[in-house]
Design a protein that fits this description.
By secondary structure, the protein is an alpha+beta fold. It has one domain (2-244). Helix content is 41%, strand content 18%. The chain has helices at 15-27, 38-47, 81-91, 96-110, 118-138, 142-163, 224-233, and strands at residues 2-6, 9-13, 174-178, 184-189, 195-198, 206-216, 236-244. 31% of the residues are buried.
Length: 246
């Protein structure tokens, strides 16, 4: 989960909500330059974080505060391997294209850990084998798949910038990442709170996206169970961003 400090406690955004925001951004992309199999790609983007089940896990820091996903330790090389396997397997129920993109996402995030665990290495090898097989079965070139995944990664990064409150002050630009065609994109929030992206990659000249967040007024928790219960009972606020073509 994504955790931001507030004056009274914490703002918590579930990873699945972040993924849905990423899909909203993807849906605004200009149609003439959209990646292949756009609607299946949107499905992959909206479900790429389905392995995260914060309500079932240890979600507290040592200080008993809600644990942001960036603070999760990876010292145990086998940690989360079974979840990765389940994510890849379950994605296939939505089709090979969705499974292919999510498998590529698994590879990108976890290949740096290769060599730390034979169990993880086996899963990573399986992903590479699956990706090659699915590309062949789908009759699609690797370059097209790479472009679609770059689009997915761009939307994922874009959503995280918004959810993690990374927009700079004073109308300064921040790089999002390179898009599916290799173009660099930057984001800036104007003094009137409208958000600008350059170059403008979207279909419409103005649109609004949103994400739901839990508003916690309690700072510390005795257990993950207590925090999970508090999240279920917490007021929900909707965070919105309106984008305009400058």
């Amino acid at each position: 989960m994504i955790v931001n400090a507030t004056p009274n406690g914490w703002e918590v955004i579930y990873h699945r909500a972040h993924a849905l925001l990423a899909a909203q951004l993807a849906g605004q992309w200009q149609r003439k330059d959209a990646p292949v199999r756009l609607y299946e790609t949107l499905a992959a983007i909206s479900h790429h974080d389905d392995l995260e089940k914060e309500w079932e896990e240890d979600i507290l820091t040592e200080a008993r505060a809600p644990q942001d996903f960036t603070l999760i330790s990876t010292k145990d090389a086998d940690a989360g391997v079974d979840k990765l396997t389940d994510l890849a397997k379950n994605a296939l129920y939505r089709g090979r294209w969705v499974a292919l993109l999510i498998s590529m996402h698994i590879s990108r995030l976890n290949e740096p850990r290769r060599g730390q665990s034979s169990k993880l290495d086996k899963v990573l090898d399986e992903q590479l084998q699956n990706q090659q097989r699915w590309r062949k079965e789908l009759g699609i070139e690797k370059e097209e798949v790479d472009a679609a995944y770059a689009f997915m990664q761009w939307c994922d990064r874009f959503s995280l910038i918004l959810c993690q409150q990374e927009l700079p002050n004073d109308e300064r630009f921040l790089e999002i990442s390179k898009g599916p065609e290799g173009q660099r994109y930057d984001i800036m929030q104007r003094s009137d709170n409208f958000v600008v992206v350059k170059p403008w990659p979207f279909q419409d000249d103005k649109f609004t996206v949103n994400v739901k967040a839990c508003d916690l007024s309690q700072v510390k928790f005795e257990s993950s169970t207590e925090l999970s219960q508090a999240l279920q009972e917490a007021p929900i606020k909707v965070l919105e961003w309106t984008f305009v073509k400058s």
